[in-house]
Every structure is written in C-alpha cells, then in structure tokens.
Design a protein that fits this description.
The chain has helices at 3-31, 165-194, 210-213, 234-242, 288-314, 326-339, 341-359, 367-380, 386-417; strands at residues 36-52, 55-70, 85-91, 94-99, 110-118, 124-129, 132-146, 149-152, 196-205, 221-225, 228-229, 249-255, 258-264, 267-269, 272-274, 277-284. It is of the alpha+beta class. It has a 5-stranded mixed barrel.
C-alpha cells in the first residue's frame, strides 16, 4: 500500500471521529436553540473556513481534536458602553448592523453617541443623534462589526447559559455518545469484513522447516494434532508443539476438502521448539445475529481494556513510553492501514470508543468536567460562577496541551532512537 493511500486513510479516520463527535454537540445545541458560532475541526491557525447560516465551519492546522463554540460560553462580544460613538444601519425600523469603528466610511449608517444599550434581553440601543435621543430596536440576528469582523449578537434566549440543565447536559454528552455509536457501527462493519473463524489454518510454511519436510502447505486447515481437536484455538496448537520437541506429532489437516495425515517433528532452534509455520484462520461470513453479538462483545472487551489503562495511569503504574501522542497514533494507524481494511476498521472503532470514554473523564476542559459543573448546578439550584468555571477549564486545557507536548516529544525521541 502506498504512503498516499495510508495517509488518506488516516486523515479520513481522524476526520470521521472528530467530526461526528462535534456534530453531536452541534446538533443538540441547535436543537435547543443555542447560537453556534463556530464548528471547528482541529486547533490553531485557520486553514479554511466558510459561513453557512449562523455558523462558521473551520478547518484548523493542528489535528488534535475540534470544538463547537456556542454563544455565551466565552466572552466573545466586544463591549459597547454609554458615551461611545457608534453607527447603526437600519433594515426597516430595526438595527441590522452595529458599527464600532471606521465610522467615517459607514455612509449608510446613522451615527450617534450611546446613551443606553441592551443586546441580550430588551434588544434596543438609544443614541444621541445630533442632540436628539432616539431609541432603535435591534434585530435578534443583528451583526456587530469591529476590526473588519462581523459577529452576530446573541440574545439571552440564544445563549448556552439560558437553557435548562437537561438541554445543556444533552448538548455536551451528545459528543461522546456519537463516538460510542460510531464505535459500535465500526465494530459491526469489522465483523462483516472479518467474518467468523471456523478453524486454524497455515498462513505460511517456512522453507527448510520441519513443516515443509512433513509436506504441509499454506492453506492447510488444521483439524487435529495428536488426537486433540484444534478448532479455533491456536494456543492449544503452540502448546502441543512446545511439548513435542524431537517427537513425531500426528497432524490431521484438510486440503482441497480432502483430509490427510502428516507426521511433523518439532525442532529446537535457538532455544525455541518450532515447526516453522505462521498461523491464520479459516473463516466464513457472519449472520446478522453473530455480527451484532460480536460487535457488542468487542465493545465490552475494548472498554474494559481502556478502563484498565486509565486505572494504571491514575495510580502511576506506567512508564512514559506507555503513553502516546499524535505521532504515536499516526504510527500505529499506519501499521493497521497496511494490514488491511478490516484491521483499520477495528482500530478506528477502538479510537472512537477511546475518544468517547476519555472525553467523559471529569478532567477540566473535557466534556466530563462540564457535566460535573452542571451536576453541581442541578444540586445547588444555581450555576457556578462562570468566571471560575472558565478559569478551571482554561487551566485544564493548558495542562492537557503540556501533556500532549511532552508525549509528542517522547514519541519523536523514540522514533529517532529506533
């Protein structure tokens, strides 16, 4: 497989995992009536963007996640104060644009000094225009223009904080839930692509090996060894081989739907008892029931392994080399991509499940932490001070970025050292 194909698969995987996660936030935020200002894939400098409706869709340089920026989550509006001179453009009887600078170039705007202004609840601005006090109603979707940028105002009923705890919690938890659903679909696809193992077979027979001397060939299905049925258990076969150093073994194999008996004598090579083979599986297609059951079993198994990993991380039972950042993820992803479409689908499912679980951890800046704050609000009956919550998330995000830099540096060193 070419590097271009591998790179395309990795980019497609990342785009799918992150986009679906953020789409979960986006969909339920819009459904609750929240103004979504930006839907971003990646962080850092902007590579590409376009605006549709109320939302700007952005692709950013650093492929380490994404975000949905909702009105009211951050102090994004430029403050307009009484005594400030601004310009307003009218659409009918209502203000459609508020200009805060370059007023001499706003030929279609009414200029005046702000006496009163409310862009959240009553939606009006009172200006002193040539000595006369004039009150202008403001459209709910009016644009504020400053430094060459247009920002839509956010009335209180369009802000994140105006919604019920349940609506806000749903908008937050929807991201990880989308990753769980995607993981299940990908595990389901993996089952369809991979099939169900029916027997162990020979994937490769090494030259000048005991297996070749016995007449075994790639593709032979191993039915019995020393009267032991092998089935789909390669460990049983390798165990029997280890116990039979320099002892003839009776193998019953199937080739072209014909059973035959072979005598194989394992040899000791460099301290290991081997016959010189690589194992694979003989497979068949799956039924709908097997696909669903297998997908669920994979979900449960991988979830347990991820939680075990988090437990080891929490209690310090790990080495720095056990952690991996974007570089390590790309490295492992390329190995799965080279292995074939089914392994790549399985790896994508694993990463999707990991992303969903990781985001639910109660770590500042992650979805889990935001859910904790909402839980506190539900219990006490009033929200936590937004400034304090924003500070907690900022510190958490900074710590996550420092950890990302550390593991990425370690990944690069590991690659250099081989």
């Amino acid at each position: 497989m070419s590097y271009v194909q591998i790179g395309f698969q990795i980019v497609l995987m990342f785009f799918l995992l992150v986009t679906l996660h953020e789409w979960g936030h986006f969909y339920f935020a819009k459904r609750a009536g929240i103004l979504v200002r930006e839907f971003a894939i990646g962080f850092g400098p902007k590579l590409f963007s376009y605006r549709k409706g109320e939302t700007t869709y952005t692709l950013r340089m650093l492929p380490i996640g994404g975000y949905v920026r909702m009105a009211g989550e951050d102090p994004e509006m430029v403050q307009v104060n009484p005594g400030q001179t601004i310009g307003v453009r009218l659409a009918g009887q209502q203000v459609s644009h508020l200009y805060l600078d370059q007023l001499d170039q706003r030929s279609q705007a009414v200029l005046g000094e702000v006496e009163q202004i409310d862009l959240e609840r009553e939606l009006y601005v009172r200006l002193n225009v040539d000595g006369e006090s004039v009150r202008f109603p403001v459209k709910p979707e009016a644009l504020m223009v400053a430094r060459g940028r247009e920002t839509q105002i956010a009335p209180w009923n369009r802000q994140f904080g105006s919604k019920t705890v349940g609506q806000r919690a749903l908008a937050i938890v929807a991201g990880p839930v989308m990753n769980f659903l995607l993981a299940f679909v990908l595990f389901l696809l993996f089952m369809v692509l991979n099939g169900v193992a029916t027997n162990v077979k020979l994937g490769k027979v090494n030259a000048d090996s005991p297996a070749e001397a016995a007449g075994l060939k790639p593709g032979d299905i191993i039915l019995q060894v020393n009267n032991e049925v092998i089935g789909t258990d390669p460990k049983k076969l390798t165990g029997l081989i280890r116990e039979s150093k320099d002892k003839p073994m009776v193998w019953i194999v199937e080739r072209n739907k014909e059973q035959m008996q072979k005598s194989v004598t394992p040899k000791d090579i460099n301290g290991a008892t081997i016959v010189g083979i690589e194992l694979a599986y003989d497979k068949r297609g799956v039924t709908a029931g097997e696909a669903l059951t297998g997908a669920w079993d994979n979900m449960v198994f991988v979830t347990k392994q991820i939680l075990i990993g988090f437990k080891q991380l929490l209690f310090g039972q790990f080495k720095m080399d056990d952690l991996g950042g974007p570089v390590r993820i790309v490295e492992v992803s390329s190995e799965y991509a080279e292995a074939g479409i089914a392994p790549m689908v399985f790896w994508s499912a694993l990463l999707s499940l990991y992303l969903g679980i990781f985001n639910l951890l109660p770590v500042p800046a992650l979805d889990g932490s935001r859910l904790v704050f909402l839980g506190v609000e539900a219990i006490r009956g009033r929200p936590v001070d937004p400034n304090r919550e924003s500070m907690v998330h900022f510190i958490g995000f900074a710590m996550l970025m420092l950890l990302m830099i550390a593991v990425t540096y370690n990944d690069i060193l590991r690659l250099i050292k081989g």
